[in-house]
C-alpha cells in the first residue's frame, strides 16, 4: 500500500495569505495525484487531478505541482471558503487507492 | 448538473446488515465507474469499493472484502453497497462518488449517509 503523508497537519494563516501544503508518497505515484478540499459538514470537492490540472470551475488561485513522491498544493491568496481540510489521493497503485491524512487550514 | 443522492444509512447492531443506495443524475451514468468512500467520525477519507461502468468489474478495500458487495442498476441510475457482518469500525459517513474522465479520482460526490454500528 502506498502511504501518503501530508504536512503540516494544521496551517494557521490569515485571509489573503499564501498557503503551501505538502503531500509525500511512500513510493512513486508518477503524476497520479489528486487534491480535494473538504469544508466542514460537506463532501470533498476535487480541486486538482494528475498533480497539476485544475478541475472544471476551480479558481486559478489553486495550483498543484510535483511528481514521483513529492507534491505541493498552493493557494495563492486565501479566501474565506478556503479554510477547510485538504486531502491528497493517489491512483497509481490501483486497486489500492489511498488518501493522505489531511491538512487543516485554519484562520489565524 | 451532476447529482448523487445517498440513502439507507442508520443504526445497526454489530454483525448486522445494511444496504446503501446512491441515485445518480445529470450524466451518462453507464459510462462511468462509481465508487464508495467512507469517513469515520473526525477522521480522514478511506476508499471502500469501485464498480466499473458496465458493472462487470468490482474492487474492494481489504478492510471490507468478503463482507461488502457493490452493484449497480443502470436502468435506475443507482449504485448500491450491501454491507454484511458490520463491525464498530465500519461506523462512518459513506459517500458515493463519480469517477472523473481521467478515472480513479472523483469529480462529483454525494452528501453522504451515516452508518453507525453499535449495540
Radius of gyration computed on alpha carbons of chain A: 13 Å
Number of distinct beta strands of chain B: 11
Q: Main sheet of chain A? A: 7 strands, mixed
- Residue windows where pLDDT falls under 50 for at least 5 positions of chain A: none
- Classify the secondary structure makeup of chain B into a structural class: mainly beta
What would your notes on this structure say?
The complex is a heterodimer of chains A (108) and B (119). Helices cover 0% and strands 49% of the residues of chain A. Chain A is mostly beta strands. In chain A, strands 2, 4, 5, 6, 9, 10 and 11 form a seven-stranded mixed β-sheet that branches. A four-stranded antiparallel β-sheet of chain A has the order 1-3-8-7, with no helix packed on it. In chain A, a hairpin with a 7-residue loop joins β9 and β10. Chain A is globular, with a radius of gyration of 13 Å. The termini of chain A are far apart. The model of chain A has no long low-confidence stretch (mean pLDDT 96). Chain B is mostly beta strands. Chain B starts with a strand and ends with a strand. At the A-B interface, β5 and β10 of A face β5 and β10 of B.
Topology:
The complex is a heterodimer of chains A (108) and B (119).
Chain A: E1 4-7, E2 10-13, E3 19-25, E4 33-38, E5 45-49, E6 53-54, E7 62-67, E8 70-75, E9 85-90, E10 98-99, E11 103-107
Parallel strand pairs in A: 2-11
Antiparallel strand pairs in A: 1-3, 3-8, 4-5, 4-9, 5-6, 7-8, 9-10, 9-11
Chain B: E1 3-7, E2 10-12, E3 18-25, E4 34-39, E5 45-51, E6 58-60, E7 68-73, E8 78-83, E9 92-99, E10 106-109, E11 113-117
Parallel strand pairs in B: 2-11
Antiparallel strand pairs in B: 1-3, 3-8, 4-5, 4-9, 5-6, 7-8, 9-10, 9-11
Task: Provide keyphrases for this structure.
heterodimer, A: 108 residues, mainly beta, seven-stranded mixed beta sheet, four-stranded antiparallel beta sheet, 0% helix, globular, B: 119 residues
Amino acid at each position: 500500500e502506498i502511504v501518503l503523508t501530508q504536512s503540516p497537519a494544521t496551517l494557521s494563516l490569515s485571509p489573503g495569505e499564501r498557503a503551501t501544503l505538502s503531500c509525500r508518497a511512500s513510493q512513486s505515484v508518477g503524476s497520479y495525484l489528486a487534491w480535494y478540499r473538504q469544508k466542514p459538514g460537506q463532501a470533498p470537492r476535487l480541486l486538482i487531478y494528475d498533480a497539476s490540472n485544475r478541475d472544471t470551475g476551480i479558481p486559478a488561485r489553486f495550483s498543484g505541482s510535483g511528481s514521483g513522491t513529492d507534491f505541493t498544493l498552493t493557494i495563492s491568496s486565501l479566501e474565506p471558503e478556503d479554510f477547510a481540510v485538504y486531502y491528497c489521493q493517489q491512483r497509481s497503485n490501483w486497486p489500492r487507492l489511498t488518501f493522505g491524512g489531511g491538512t487543516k487550514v485554519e484562520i489565524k | 448538473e451532476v447529482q448523487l443522492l445517498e440513502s439507507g444509512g442508520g443504526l445497526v447492531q454489530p454483525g448486522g446488515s445494511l444496504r446503501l443506495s446512491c441515485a445518480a443524475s445529470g450524466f451518462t451514468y453507464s459510462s462511468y465507474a462509481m465508487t464508495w468512500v467512507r469517513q469515520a467520525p473526525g477522521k480522514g477519507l478511506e476508499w471502500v469499493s469501485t464498480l466499473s461502468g458496465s458493472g462487470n468489474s468490482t474492487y474492494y478495500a481489504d478492510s471490507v472484502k468478503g463482507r461488502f458487495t457493490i452493484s449497480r442498476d443502470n436502468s435506475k441510475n443507482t449504485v448500491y453497497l450491501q454491507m454484511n457482518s458490520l463491525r464498530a469500525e465500519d461506523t462512518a459517513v459513506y459517500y458515493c462518488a463519480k469517477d472523473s474522465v481521467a478515472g480513479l479520482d472523483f469529480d462529483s460526490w454525494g452528501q453522504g449517509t451515516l452508518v453507525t454500528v453499535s449495540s
